[in-house]
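Issue 218. Parser rejects a valid record. Input:
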Amino acid sequence: MTVPDVTVVTAVYNTMPYLTRCLTSVLEQTIGLDRLEVVAVDDGSTDSSGRELDRFAKAYPGTVKVVHQQNSGGPANPSNRALEIATGRYVFFIGSDDYLGPEALERLVAAADRHDADVVLGRMVGVNSRYIHQAIFESTQTDVDLFTSPLPFSLSNTKLFRRDLIERHKLRYPEDMPVGSDQPFTIEACYRARRVSVLADYDYYFAVRRFNAHNITYKSRHLERLHCAESIMNFVGGLIEAGPRRDAVLLRHFAWEVARLLENDFLGLDRPTQASVQAGVRTLAERYLTDTIRDQLGIEPRVRLALAWHGELDDLLAVIRQDADHGNPSTVVEGDRWYADYPGFRDPRLGIPDHWFEITGNAAEWIARLDTVQVAFEGSRTLLVTARSPRPDLPHLASALKIMAGEVPAETTELVPDITGTTIRARILLPALLTDLAPGGKLRLIQARIDAFGTTGTAPLRGPRRAVPQRVVVRRGARLHVLTATINHKGQLIVAVAPVTPRRVMARLRRRLPLGGK
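Output the parser choked on:
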């Protein structure tokens, strides 16, 4: 019996109609059916996903293998079960609502064979404004290191793995993690791999954000995400000895998973949950937060971690409210040292060292932090963004200031100082936002880019205090696009650009109509 080159594994739970596109994209790969095996595990779906899997298995006998089981509560168990069935030289994991570029598997397998790589990443793009960290995909690289590259910020399992590596080290998903179980698997695979390669020459993987956002990652809550962070970081702590290499991996988890626990939505939790989250974050900080990691964090997560670790709950809440409700705190300047005067700074009761609040090396970034006052579409040609800085001397400090929508600069940027600060008005041309779009659209973060103190600082604009999404439809050629100015989960101003498709129109109608469509 011929061994397939690659086994594609997918854990399935209620992903229709996305599942059809996912499987079609796999089975139409240019690598060919004779080199392909598909193992799909239906984890107790209650929609038509199970029937759709059986339909594909009947249409592709010998290629598609389907397992049906009771719901296990997460993707770990079905992924492990699929690994017991897989026979390919390589294994590739795909989310059952995502899809592949037509040549993805052929290119990935060829690269793994050519470079003798145990793990290969192909460039991922987001669909329907799904965020994908792109730093690792800046260039094609034969050999990337887990500890000196952005790889720790791309730890999803959506990669090609040599199955011999998986079996030799008995790599499996921890089944006590309903969220994030792919990260320990991926971290250890990259840690054990002889070589990890990155391909940035093609759109290999399309990661879809569902319109209803009903997968477990989007639904997870603070305590579940805290458990996920604890499990991952303790796993890393047991796998990699303390020192710079462990710090390089854990930096991602403090900057991402832990920082997200302390974002502005923390204020909306009930007090017992707030206290539980703070206690968990304090434990992780005591165990793993080194000076090296701290000094690489941005000012907001760094200060919030300081108060979570060294303060009481009300101290932590005061810092978060400062950002959420009041904007930038004042700045303390002493000689050539700059400090953010957040609640808790030089509070003798807390005794937190000044370096937790220092922004000296990032002063340009600090003064780039602006508060959005108003956002308005001017017809279908221009987006007017009005922002505010608390610094009347901003025009003097900044040799240049530009408002950016992603990498698209504003057509005009005007600064108007007064005795209490500076107002910034920027007009962004909408046709420029329709360039370089992925198939499902694009999220463009609105940022201020400032040249000051011999450096360039960039910071996202905070969203308006009373955010009301603004929308406009813009035509480009024969296609219509919806542009939505809104705020993301971090309270930052963004413009979401999305093509108008029949599926999107139907999804919006379903959200607006009551059940039964009456």
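Fixed in the parser; the record now loads. The first helix runs from residue 18 to 27.
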